[in-house]
Write a structure and sequence with these properties.
mainly alpha; P1 Nuclease; two-stranded parallel ribbon; 271 residues
Length: 271
């Protein structure tokens, strides 16, 4: 059976879209880890500026606002992804719907706002919060990929849920660390990760990983919720060790996101 949008399905989708979503890239633990890794690598003068901005909402650390953007999706025209076909299909003329701004462009936009000390503090704080979140988002493989990962799965009896949700939350949850603990673990694990690059390049990396690490499983087909081929609504059972086997990929991407976030903020706020 395929996912088709008849009137009942459309009604359910509209209702669901109006409800808070539980699964976003990396979840709160992953975004907290990205923020903590980055904060530890900020130059002293930059950290001072960041804390001054955060004080406007009574936060002492970046992790306090790391998931803020997920709660205001309906208030801003920012898409939390940049969809690049993982199979090498040419890029569409527009990566985001008309009137929307993809994550990679949003990061560039908000970086300019943050760096401009003539802007009101409230605007610069909003920019900071988006940057912290979106840099993390773009390092989740399925936030750089087209398709997004609507494939339905079971994992050790849990589900049905989308493979996207597994990469958002289940892999990190299975590891069992808090955000600060995960950040400390990754900062000190001795693994060197590639840094630098542009937000669009980060999305391209994620798209490539989606192809090699998500869609490489024969049962996870390329499919969409809104066009052909439609995703099957018959869940696939993932290998029992799927989340633990994929954890090293997630760990490296979270560490990369933290390092790159620090690089971006150090450059934007350099005196």
């Amino acid at each position: 059976m395929k996912l088709r949008f008849n009137s009942l399905t459309l009604s359910l989708v509209l209702v669901a879209s109006a409800m808070p979503q539980a699964a976003f890239a990396w979840g709160k633990v992953g975004h907290s880890a990205v923020a903590n890794i980055a904060e530890a690598r900020l130059d002293a003068a930059v950290l001072k500026q960041v804390k001054e901005l955060l004080a406007g909402e009574h936060f002492d650390h970046m992790q306090g606002v790391a998931s803020w953007a997920d709660g205001v999706r309906d208030d801003y025209d920012v898409v939390h992804s940049t969809r690049i076909p993982f199979d090498g299909t040419p890029l569409p003329d527009e990566l985001c719907p008309s009137g929307k701004i993809c994550a990679h462009d949003a990061i560039s936009k908000y970086r300019n706002v943050l760096a401009d000390r003539r802007q009101p503090a409230a605007e610069r704080l909003t920019a900071l919060k988006f940057i912290i979140h979106l840099v993390g988002d773009l390092h989740q493989p399925l936030h750089g990929s087209d398709p997004i990962g609507y494939n339905m799965v079971f994992l050790r009896g849990e589900g049905p849920l989308t493979i996207h949700a597994v990469w958002d939350n289940n892999i990190i949850t299975r590891h069992g660390a808090t955000g600060p603990a995960l950040a400390n673990e990754l900062r000190n694990n001795g693994i060197v990760v590639q840094t630098g690059g542009t937000p669009l390049q980060w999305a391209t990396e994620s798209s490539s990983l989606a192809g090699s690490e998500v869609y490489s499983l024969a049962a996870i087909d390329k499919c969409w919720s809104y066009k052909e081929p439609l995703c099957s609504d018959n869940p696939v059972t993932l290998p029992a060790d799927y989340d633990s086997a994929k954890y090293p990929i997630v760990a490296n991407r979270i560490k990369q996101a933290g390092y790159r976030l620090a690089e971006l903020l150090n450059a934007a706020l350099a005196e």
